[in-house]
Amino acid sequence: MTKAKGFSLIELLIVVAILLIIAAIAIPNLLRARIAANESSAAASLRTISTANTAYASAYGIGYAGDLNHLGPPVGGVPDSTHADMLDAGISGCPLACTSNFATKAGYNFTYAAPDPAPTAANPNYTFTVVAVPVTFDSTGNSTFCVDQTGVILRDIAGAGAAMTTASGNGCIQDGWVGATITPIQ
């Protein structure tokens, strides 16, 4: 009688069990790392929007942009106050001529608000607010973020339901971004 070569069913089940244990340990860590990366990207995008908006206010003399697309790329190639080419198409909300106060990037929805959607020298925007909210709480992010004309990025760690998610365009503090779960980030 010859002995068969190969793995027994018990040996295969042990290998599968070991792989499942490793996956159970690794997957939550990978999800936490992805959430941390998305949150870092959201904060960096807010800083970019704030910097672009400050440059916009200096360049055009009409205050801050009326919407995200005012900061985005121009349709015809020549920047102006309606398409200043200070943000890429991914974060400005749309790549072509359109009006947009919303964008999605790296697991976060961005909402832009300013008092006047079409600022002029006679009626400039002195304030703006941008809020970044996770597309899915506890999956793409855990915190919401806000930046305004001060350039200070605020983080709300309250989580789904309790977190600040709206912007009126009057600045983060005036929009209600105060409380124990809200802190500035560096």
Q: Could you characterize what this model shows?
A:
With 186 residues, the chain is an alpha+beta fold. The protein has one domain. Helix content is 30%, strand content 16%. The protein contains two helices and six strands. A six-stranded antiparallel sheet has the order 1-2-3-4-5-6. Strand 4 and strand 5 form a beta hairpin. It is elongated.
Q: Tell me the number of helical segments per DSSP (H or I, 4 or more residues long).
A: 2
- Report how far the terminal alpha carbons are from each other: 74 Å
Strand order of the largest sheet: 1-2-3-4-5-6
Helix content: 25-40%
Q: How big a fraction of the residues is strand?
A: 15-25%
Overall spatial form: elongated
**Tally of individual domains:** 1
Rg = 23 Å
In terms of structural class, how would the helical and strand content be classed? alpha+beta
Number of strands: 6
Low-confidence stretches: none
Please give the largest β-sheet: 6 strands, antiparallel
Overall average pLDDT: 86
What's the order of the H and E elements?
HHEEEEEE
